[in-house]
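I hope you will forgive my troubling you with a question about protein structure. I should value your view on which stretches of the chain appear to form regular backbone elements. Here, with my thanks, is the record as I have it:
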Amino acid sequence: MPRTVTFAAAVAVTLWCVVCALMTDAWATPLERVEFEGATQRLISGGLIVGDHIQGYLAKPEGVGPFPAVIGLHGCAGMPGTTKRKLVDDLVGWGYVVLLVDSFATRGIEHACTGGFLWDIAGTRRSDAYGALAFLARQTFVDPQRVAAVGFSQGAWVTLLAAEANSFELFVHASNLGFRAVVAFYPLCRAVAGRPLIPTLILIGALDEWTPAADCSQKIDAWGTDGASIEHVVYPSVHHSFYYPELQPGRTIFGRWAEYNEEAATDATRRMREFLKRHLN
């Protein structure tokens, strides 16, 4: 699969992944590794594209449920360990089953942050999201009618794709099975066409160089106010990846700045909790 990466950038990503792995071992709450198949996609011609074999990591609250659930979708370089710990601890503590989808491991992908590969993998990852939804629906401790998706950067882009009206028609799944809501941390809004069919929360920094906040504002204005609610929060003086505590101090990654912001991350966490409570509980 094509990549265009400088040597320095490749080294940075490699070190990033090593650090993430070490942090996961040292910090992460117990996660059960699970495997499932991505959703099968229908073609206009009548043919089918079978989903890939995907792995993920599952955590749940104590008890038998059924619980509402959240599917987590990582960014173009995966999800760093401390962030994974925080996200899982928060969501499980709020009473949700959590399934973190790893779209790269079984595909042998280190990252998908550069080149034409970026566009290819985003569409494929929508199949992963729906496959994860089907997997959760088969678990006795999950309420299949109360599942949301939370994504970061490229993963946030995928959540918006999954929320589009036509997205529900592209994949083979039970007719009554779908996401109830999505949360998108700094998504690539300009690459999304259709208005979300379900309640959507978009959280983004005003200084984001990867996924400009202005693109989301323009897209939301174009979509209008008819349909499901769209909550859009732009944080002043905040950069891309503001939720990732690993990015302090901030740094340049693939030529663009990324930096943790505690105030924005805390507010976004609060908003995410309130949003999920409204739409899943």
